[in-house]
Amino acid sequence: MAELNIVEKVIALEGVELLGNLTPEQLARIATIAHEIRFPPGKIVLEAGKPADALYVVVDGAAELSREGESLATAGQNDVLGAWALFEEDDPMPLTAKTLEDCRLLRIGRDDFYDLLADNTEITASVFSTLVKRFRKLVEQ
User: Fold this and answer.
1) Neighbours of 41 (CB within 10 A)
2) Got the DSSP string for 63-124?
3) In the Cβ-directed half-sphere of 135, how many Cα atoms lie within 13 Å?
4) What is the tens place of the pLDDT at every residue in 28-63?
5) How does DSSP assign 7-38, residue by residue?
6) Taking a C-beta distance cutoff of 8 angstroms, is the pair 45, 23 a contact?
7) Mapping DSSP to helix (H, G, I), strand (E, B) and coil, where does residue 44 land?
8) What domains can you pick out in the chain, each with its CATH number?
9) In whole numbers, what is the pLDDT of the chain averaged over residues?
10) What is the mean pLDDT of residues 6-23?
11) 56 in Cβ contact with 45 (< 8 Å)
12) What predicted TM-score, i.e. pTM, was given to this entire model?
């Protein structure tokens, strides 16, 4: 299977709620820092109790999300693993994400993401707007 090109990465990133308000051009900037990685079945992507330093977007395959051995959900195409890892430095993950089958993921590292935000205020504003809307929605429930 060939490596994803920028357009394919942008298409995958369009499904990420956190990035939902970004233009294709802004998503292309993020795509340049998104690195494709592959995991075979049974590999742990994120481990409960350990800090994570990246967000992962599932391009192909599936991963099981569990807490203390109890299966909670299955993440598939366009789902995100570890979204809050971009904002919570050194906080342990509450869940484990383990691949159920061959998985192709896009990895966006926290440091690369911060560097991108520092140089792109319009992306920063959009991401924070999405976070505020999510927070407001939670508070109003």
Assistant:
1) 13
2) EEEEETTEEEEEE-TT-EE-GGGGT-TTPBBSSEEEESS-EEEEEEEHHHHHHHHHH-HHHH
3) 7
4) 999 999 999 999 999 999 999 998 899 999 999 999
5) HHHHHHHHT-GGGTT--HHHHHHHHTTEEEEE
6) no
7) strand
8) 6-140 (2.60.120.10)
9) 90
10) 89
11) yes
12) 0.87
Q: Which pair of tokens denotes residue 16? A: 């990420």
Q: What is the mean pLDDT of residues 73-77?
A: 93
Contact 34, 13 (CB under 8 A): yes
Cα distance between residue 130 and residue 47, in whole Å: 26
- Model confidence pLDDT, tens digit, residues 81-130: 988 787 777 788 889 999 999 999 999 999 999 999 999 999 989 888 88
